Every structure is written in C-alpha cells, then in structure tokens.
Amino acid sequence: MTLDVAWAQRWARESAAAIAAAKDELVELDRQIGDGDHGENLNRGFQAVVLKLDLIPDAPPLIGDVLKTVATTLMSSVGGASGPLYGTAFLRAAKVSGLAELDAHAVVALLEGALEGITARGKAQVGEKTMVDAWSPAVDAAVLAADAGASPEDVLVAAESAAAAGAEATIALVATKGRASYLGERSIGHKDPGAASSVILLQAAVRACGAPA
To answer: In this structure, which of 73, 90, 169, 180 has its CB flanked by the most CB atoms within 10 Å?
Structure first.
C-alpha cells in the first residue's frame, strides 16, 4: 500500500469514523479528570473534516494539502484545548508533508511535525499526563523502525503500538498540565483522554494503509 494523497484522505475519514465510535468512551475519560467534552468536541471536528473533504471535487496533489484541510477545519470547529492542539499538530505535519507519497523517513517527519505542533501549543513534556505521553514514544518508535529499514506502513504500526503503551502509562501519572492538574494525585488511576484519542488517530492511520491496527 502506497502512502499517498488517497491514503491521507482515507486517514482523515477513518479518524472521523473511529472518533465517532469512541465518542462516549472519550467523554467518560474526560469526565473523570477534565470537563467531559473531549469526545463531543473531537467528533464534531472530524465530522466537519469529512464534510469539507466531500466538498473537494478532485483529490489535491499533495499529502500536505489534505493535512492542512484537517488542521484548519479542526481549529475552526473544535472547542476546548483539543482543537488548537490537534489543529497545530496537523498543520505542522502538513508543512513537512508537501509530497505526493511518503517513504519511511517522511512518515517520521510527519509524526515529528505533529509532536512539535502539540508541544509548541501545549507546552507539555513527557510525564505530565497529556497527549505528549502518546506522541513522544510514537515518534521514538517510528525513528527506530525507519532507521532499521522498515516500510512506511510498518513505521506507522510501530508508532501506533508505542503510542498505545504510552497512553496506558498515563494511568499511573499525576497530571501537571491542563484542567486535570487541578486534581493533583486524584488524577492517578485515570487514562489521559488526549493520549487515548491520539492512539485512535494513529490506529486510523494504520487502517488507512490496509494494515490491521
């Protein structure tokens, strides 16, 4: 499977379907340590992404064009912190994905761009119980896989697997960023909803390749 513009469009649509299916789960995760709107907000944003893609009569020439559409739509339609965070992530990813097709190292660059966008916007670091705890290990795993000669698809699989482990690890962390930080040690025992939704998006990227997530 080639990681091209059609893949990027499938990723966006797979993300929308997966977020819709997980909406209630994300709402519950956010209700436990946040304000409970993460699932609703993301679902609204990605449904708007699908509508925007449906209005484009022809496929754009570059992967970055698709990712920029995702970014600007999320920024304009998602409330709370997740809109700016994911919007900036996709926007930074778009800037390094001005290609018609991605090889393994270009996949790494895409993931690195997304992480840079999240950290630039949210000012979070690993260990603070945020989506960075999913994206950072995802990037590390992607780098190792690409350097070992893995295919672009396998680089994504490695990234998704590491992100899932990172998201699970947030359960034991004390939140020190965002609304969850108000709970202090009471945030222990709950998975970060942003880390959880990050895994969902990376799983969608893998499924868009035709590989099992």
So the answer is: 90
Between CA 213 and CA 210 the distance in angstroms is: 9
Distance CA 15, CA 188 (A): 28
For helices 38-54 and 5-33, angle between their N-to-C axes, nearest 10 degrees: 160
Token pair for 114 = 């997304």
pLDDT by residue (tens digit) across 182-199?
A: 777 888 999 999 999 999
80 DSSP assignment: T
Domain locations in the chain as residue ranges: 5-208
Count Cβ atoms within 10 A of the Cβ of residue 60 and give its class: 0-12 exposed, 13-18 middle, 19 or more buried: middle
Topology (CATH) of 5-208 = 1.25.40
**How much is the pTM?**
0.94
